[in-house]
Amino acid sequence: MVSGDGSDKTGSAGDTGGPAETTEADEGGPIEETLGELLADREATLAVAESLTGGLVGSRVTDVPGASAYFDRGFVTYAYDAKRELLGVSRESLDAEGAVSATVAEQMAAGARDRADATWAVSTTGVAGPGGGTAEKPVGLVYVGVAYAAPWGTRDSFVRSERVVLDDDRGTIKRKAADAALEALVRAIREVDAEA
């Protein structure tokens, strides 16, 4: 993953550097339950913006009973026009970098956060395969965006992205991308807590 600190990790099937097949938080339960507890405890809200995962992140979030207390909405924006119309992703970014980029992942997350007026948003964009990959953007390349709306006047709001490279079939890449999104969001919430 490439995050704000520029570090890079590549995960493949069976590789500990990437998201596990079934992701569980350090409390022992599924990551979506940990996320739900973190959001509910803080009275925070969540919106998701998904491209390659096609709704899997939102589905995982709503698998947790009581998710209506924190889950606001999901945007499935597979096409360029959907990203522009529903999330405000710029034509210039899509034209210059394509949908699979850190910039677009960040604009998707910020757009979902701002349109839903949510505390948090997470986005996914990438190449699920089996076709569509290039040398620059191979099958399994995924960008996850995370956006946070801090209280007004604090100047602590942010948007950032992580780069993940996964190696498997289409369905598994999509599931691992959803895992990566949930993990990135949990990490970000905990980082905000640690700085408070």
Automatic annotation (TrEMBL):
InterPro entries: CinA-like_C, CinA_C. Residues 31-187 form the CinA C-terminal domain. Residues 1-32 are annotated as: Disordered. This is CinA family protein. It comes from Halorubrum trueperi.
